Fold this protein.
Amino acid sequence: MEIVKLENILAKVECSSWEEAIISAGELLIKSGYVTEKYVDEMVEAVKQLGPYIVMVPHVALAHARPGDSVLMEGISVITLKEPLDFGSEYNDPVKIVIAFSATDAGKHLKAIQDISKILENDEKLEMIFNASDSKIIYNIINDID
Amino acid sequence: MSKIKVLAVCGFGVGSSMILKMKIDEVLKAHGIVADVFTTDVGSATSTPCDIIFTSKELEINIKSKATVPVVAIQNFINKKEIEEKGLELIKGLLSK
């Protein structure tokens, strides 16, 4: 089963700030036609307003914004960071993996969230994803292809 | 109280809180507790009727000052053990009232 498409994965991205990391993951959502550019700004703004709560699991940020006009369809992208970055999360920094997603409405995207949580609850897989040198390896880990 | 209302809260009520809800559901089910677990955003959290609120450490401060029910702050949303340790006794306490 395909949880994340290969073109929506990037490995070892060089970012110098948490904003850049969110933008990098967000650009994949734009390229795939899931969201408009405004959505990426909204994801960055969400952290500025609400704090780094999106780093809800150690070393993983779940970047997202509110469902709305800037969301065209539901989608997920995943990037790993070449150098781990601090998002300001007291407990879960530094961030090594950024997962960005778009939701069309709160009820409908449960499937996507279930898929994401499957990735998050497997420490071993997360470590493998972080260590992977290219996106194809990450694609196979996430989508559980041997 | 026979059935408890549990609110999982994140910034928009669509992402992190959904995952938290799924994990709370799993913990309660494992302990044979029947509950309605639902999600909302941080802005509506304290105006939503419920018996207990679960949220993140970062959002706790926005909620705790206005909440009239217990607020449980979870650091790792996927960690069922943390949810159990911080929330289970509180929920059992509410149920025995």
Remarks:
- The interface with chain A takes residues 10-16, 18-20, 22-23, 39, 41-42, 56-59, 75-79 of chain B (CB under 8 Å).
- Chain B has one domain: 4-95.
- The helical segments of chain B are 16-30, 57-64, 80-95.
